[in-house]
Amino acid sequence: ETRMDTIRREIFQSCCFFFIFHSFFLTILFTSSVNSEDQTCRRKWWIPPLVSVSTSLVIIFLVQMKLCRYWKVCRQLQRERTDNRALTRCIQELRMKGKSFDL
């Protein structure tokens, strides 16, 4: 459960980074486009969107990988709980039959 909390926190931080990056990036992009009258800036208009899209894809990929890791840990935790319940039932049945032992 601690691992799940850690992964949840990492996912939240990645999503926050995504929104902070885009707010910062779009602010810079807007201010630079408003203030520029240069012809070279107009010829290279595709660079900022390309950087934004590539960064977005990387962050989305990382969040997806963390989600997959979260689901894997969640399944492992569920499996451990099921195994513990089965072990508890077996111990109860053995005790009902009169067997005594220490774990």
From TrEMBL:
UniProtKB keywords: Membrane, Transmembrane, Transmembrane helix
Transmembrane spans: 12-33, 45-63
Q: Which PANTHER family match?
A: OS03G0453550 PROTEIN (PTHR33287:SF3)
Q: What is this protein called?
A: Uncharacterized protein
Which species is listed as the source? Davidia involucrata (Dove tree)
